[in-house]
Amino acid sequence: MTPLKIGENAPHFCLKNQDDQAISLNDFQGKKVLVYFYPKALTPGCTTQACALRDSKSALDQLGLVILGISPDLPKKLAQFVEKKGLNFNLLSDPDHQVAEQFGVWGEKKFLGKTYDGIHRISFLIDENGVIEQVFDKFKTSEHHQVVLDYLQKQ
Questions:
Q1: In this predicted structure, what is the pLDDT of residue 74?
Q2: Are 109 and 115 in contact (CB under 8 A)?
Q3: Given its phi and psi angles, is residue 141 left (phi above 0), alpha (psi -120 to 50 degrees) or beta?
């Protein structure tokens, strides 16, 4: 697993969202986009991370940021996540983890003594020209939103 680095072009992708609508990275040309990868909808860590982004969305909107969450979950499960937690941004379905692989976030993980392949919790800030401006890979789920806000406010 080798995540993309600052200065590299973000892969173009088109995935279904929670409403089963196709969402493309190209839809947001000219805007900063936070593409955050998370392992599984409605699990404790992923819920903490998503709800903190939800609660910070107005501040992130003021900084011109679009949020896209990506997981292997199907659109129906994403719709449940959005509805149950009142999420106010798009969640995208990557069931065959093709986009996760393009970003270099799909790989071996260990949990409770078991080894398996899955999504690593890494976020990419993509600039207005489709270039990776920043990579966030060291954060607690409860602090992810603040790490992103702090970075954007310093720019």
A1: 98
A2: yes
A3: alpha
Short-list 87, 71, 3, CA closest to 37: 71
Tokens for 30, please give them: 């000219």
87 has which bridge partners? none
Interval 121-147: pLDDT, tens: 999 999 999 999 999 999 999 999 999
What percentage of the chain's residues is helix, strand, coil (to nearest 5)? 35, 30, 35
The b-or-e profile of 90-115 (16+ CB within 10 A means b, else e) is bbbbbeebebbeebbbbeeeeeeeee
pTM of model > 0.90: yes
Active-site residue set: 46
Q: Which residue has the tokens 């997981």?
A: 71
pLDDT in tens, 27-84: 999 999 999 999 999 999 999 999 999 999 999 999 999 999 999 999 999 999 999 9
Q: Which two tokens stand for residue 52?
A: 């903190």
